[in-house]
């Protein structure tokens, strides 16, 4: 319980202080989880093994949810679901027109598969034209957990009322589980909310995340109220399952609302994947807290297909939950709920 | 009594060996358990952001910038009392936190011990 003070430097090189208070955990997370699992017949050691899957084969992607809603059937008859760029306003410039107007030197030659934009530096680029597709389909999230703690994240519209995000943005194991309230703000740009915002507590995820906290299953969805349909105006992303050879050669685009920029500005960066696993895409795209749930997409012709959901930061590479068949199926089902 | 004495003598001869073997086994088991069972801390870590005026800072964005084992890219926002929570600080080690206080960025290096669960951060 005795505080200890550690000398620190702030961003300006000035010394600051960090006090660390030692507290004896009366009921630590390990005990809590063990208590929660008592009587279930599950191994009590499982929560202590990183990445351990305490599920029967095939159950990781089984949907879980906080509210009962009408649920569309998940019939995955294709591995691509194109997005929609809604042509409704004179602001509806294509990405090429908007972005390459600012960066004409970066415009690539005609190619069947091109990326959103190729940036020659490691730095993120601020998106000022958040009323242009696809940026307007990227949403800032204001999350209130069950214990009333406040968080920020990112999501992306996949239908008029469905926002895809990270599982840990909708289900927070250490804060009481399902988020109590999430405000979704499409195309936020500082104080500007060009499409208003919607508040909901109807969220979805899968057992692999909610039951096992397995990083491979860290994805979920937010279903907005029936009277708030921003995707009708903003358009929405497509999504697709892509194989290793495709992803290895494609540049990945990522745009979200990082906390180091205040969480109200959209920042973008693109790079090729660093490595791939069956469920995770790793890259050297710069991200910060607040970008959890951001879309990781490729551009094919005029279509944008999300291939991952950004979730994690690490010095060896930031990473996304990869959209594979079961993830695709769940997104399709959640999309149907928000049509 | 003779036999008893013999037994006792024999026991005395082997007892140190058994004790040494038991001690080695105990060490091996402890080491094995230590390697397969990483130390996890009470989660989440909670804290308070205190401004230079000594008052709690509300609406500051707090996030993990560097961590030993990686972290989710969600950011915490302080409440009116300056309180925040951070997940993924579940193992002892060096962390770098970033605090955005109304555009003023500060980086704080924190070395967490296994029993730490509360951080008070002065800007």
Identify the notable features of this structure and list them briefly.
heterodimer, A: about 350 residues, eight-stranded antiparallel beta sheet, 7 helices, B: alpha+beta, disordered N terminus
Write up what this structure looks like.
The complex is a heterodimer of chains A (339) and B (123). Chain A has helices at 29-37, 95-102, 167-170, 207-210, 231-234, 244-249, 325-337; strands at 4-9, 15-22, 63-65, 80-81, 113-114, 125-127, 138-144, 150-157, 162-165, 171-172, 177-178, 181-186, 198-200, 203-206, 220-223, 238-240, 251-256, 266-276, 280-283, 295-300, 303-313, 318-322. Chain A is an alpha+beta fold and 339 residues long. In chain A, the strands form 4 sheets. An 8-stranded antiparallel β-sheet of chain A has the order 3-14-15-9-8-7-12-13. Chain A has a 6-stranded antiparallel β-barrel with strand order 17-18-19-22-21-20. Chain B is of the alpha+beta class and 123 residues long. Chain B has one helix at 2-36; strands at 45-50, 61-66, 71-72, 75-77, 83-86, 93-101, 104-112, 116-122. In chain B, the strands form 2 sheets. A 4-stranded antiparallel β-sheet of chain B has the order 4-2-6-7, with no helix packed on it. In chain B, strands 5-1-8 form a 3-stranded mixed β-sheet, with no helix packed on it. The radius of gyration of chain B is 26 Å and the shape is elongated. The termini of chain B are far apart. Chains A and B meet through strand 1, strand 2, strand 8 and strand 21 of A and strand 2, strand 3, strand 4, strand 5 and strand 7 of B.
